[in-house]
Amino acid sequence: MTEQSSLNRFLGPYAPIARLLLIYLAILCFSRLSLTLWQFDRLDGIGQFAVVLLNGLRVDLILSGMLLAPLILLVPILAHRFSWRLWQDIISLWAVLTVAVIIFTELASPTFMIEYGQRPNRLFIEYLKYPQEVMSMLWEGYRLTLVGGILITAAVAYGMYRLSRHWLHQEQPGWAYWKTLLCWPLMVLVTVVMVRSSFDHRPANPSTFAITQDPMVNDLMLNSAWSVYFAIYNLKHEEESNEVYGELTHEQILAELDKEKPELIVNASANPPVINPQHASRQREKPLNLVLILEESLSADYVKTLGGSGATPELDKLSEQGWWFDNLYATGTRSVRGIEAVISGFLPTRARSVVKLSLSQQNFFTIASLLEKHGYLTEFIYGGQAHFDNMASFFVGNGFQHIIDREHFEDPVFEGSWGASDEDVFNKLHERLQQHHASGKPFFSFAFTSSNHSPYEFPDGRIEIEGEKQTPENAVRYADYALGQFFDKARQSEYWKDTVFLVVADHHNRVEGDNLVPIEKYHIPGLILGADIQPKELKTLASQIDLPTTVLSMMGISASHPMIGRDLTLAEEQHKPGRAFMQYDDYFAKMTGDEVVILRPENTPLYGHYDHKTQTLSMNGTPEYEPYETTLAHALLPGWLYQCRCYQSPTDETSYTQSGHVMLTESSITHPHESPVDRQDRHSVQ
């Protein structure tokens, strides 16, 4: 009690705030120490251990300053004898709420780090929009963790309430009111310094602490409450997106794009500013139908043909029957990233996927909208609720005529947390394809599986279980079994000879590693088969954005569109070193052959080499000017096209010469902010 009285005399009304600061720091430092000891094998010795703890203290002071700022600002208004009792009650309530938030986010960290390889971030917030699916997943897969976390948080909150009634309370202000006001500017200044944690132009942010090549070690320096806060902040500033990597004018972006892909038609003042006048390498009297199967979390780690564990015998057999991609890489770590890449050919950004963003819900290019113009029936088939991740809204607004989701499955074979099983999805797909073929109308069906998603639920009696049933390995075996069953039926069906099938994974199930961008975790399987497609093994480096352009060419579809992906049916493209783009948290990577450039927010880029055989990345410092400019151009391009709403096909039809070159007139290109009258005048002048 004497120590408390001494502190009250020394700090007056600021004493309870100082005590609360100590509570924050004690909880956060203890949590970081525990997590760092748990992940100690990721550290480079005791020296890095000390670096993590010291930088972590800096981050904890940032969060503490943010949490204490409202109390500091209220001191002149409430910290006097007329409202002292109310002031004490506010401090107690604030202490309980803020400590509960800190405890809950820190308790959630180990499970989140196991699942995603990072501290809680934007996914922690985004998934709260879908409580039914997320709560079902948590209850089935993480029941003890969920219940334990809630109980511990509640217990700590109650303990904080009891503690606040004694340790945080003081009977008298301790100082004369004039002294409180005199010291207040100093306290505000101290709080600002804590929050900024920097005297540079910009305050500290998570990228400030990205000082090692291991993202997990960098995340250990953060605390989870601040990580989640920064994710919320970034969600409200989507328009800034990739501009944190650097600046280029629109003309410079297009100039870099033209160097790499000179067949593109680029014009910074046009809408769209980028046109790919793609001419199908395979001419067909009647273009083929398209079935796209996006496999949930089916990474290369499980595929024997790609050096994996051998959990996909059916896919391994299918790999010998079509075009098999040996060196294919995903663009991101979430399903919506895979969707935007294979459906729209769109490059990844730091912002949320365009599937979720407001400006892309209509008039945004997809292969569905392109094929719809060619008379195709277009549909999306999913075993869960299509509203998840905003898929239904994006698809309906951009060319998909029919959405088949959970409510359309009668008496499913099995239903888990994420909806009907893969078997049910493929049974529905087979049924629909038979109907479409009988109608004689061309079709595009996009099926998205979900059985290989935590908590890994699937029906009994299908596969031989190894160990516990609900594991990623067993879920992959079941997903592979269901895929094999579908193709056994498809190959015997009438629609087979008129249809090309694209099977590809959306992303790895757990993307983590000891590099800023764990490239090896982006390696995924991809296969194109069906109709008259002959077996072929493609070893060139490829990205998910190359798949829609390649499959359109195989179908016999010639069209102008904004996708910059490569057409890998062309022999010259197959002999190039290839390139792939990857977004990992705040980092954007471009891999060309074995050269890798990594862009970091508000920081210098890094350059290195990736050994595809050993799956190791060696960073060699800062890249030369030219490769950095090219990578930056590809990082800035999607944000620009999204903001100007100009990621779309040209408004007028494009004609092709017999040599395959595109004849574009000025009327084929619309100009932004141009009225119909201006456009008519421009055409009449010509």
Explain this structure to me?
It is a single chain. This protein has 21 helices and 23 strands. By secondary structure, it is of the alpha/beta class. A hairpin with a 4-residue loop joins β20 (606-611) and β21 (616-621). 44% of the residues lie in helices and 14% in strands. It is globular and about 90 Å long. The protein has two domains: 2-236, no CATH class; 250-668, 3-Layer(aba) Sandwich (Alkaline Phosphatase, subunit A), CATH 3.40.720. The protein has an eight-stranded mixed β-sheet, sandwiched between helices. Strands 17-18-19-20-21 form a five-stranded antiparallel β-sheet, covered by helices on one side. A three-stranded antiparallel β-sheet has the order 1-2-16, with helices on one face. Residues 653-686 have low confidence and may be disordered.
Could you provide a short overview of the structure?
This protein has 686 residues and is an alpha/beta fold.
Name of the CATH first level of the largest domain: Alpha Beta
Strand content is: 5-15%
Rg, Cα atoms, Å: 28 Å
Specify the CATH architecture of the largest domain: 3-Layer(aba) Sandwich
Counting DSSP E segments of at least 2 residues, the number of strands comes to 23
Number of domains: 2
Helix and strand composition category: alpha/beta
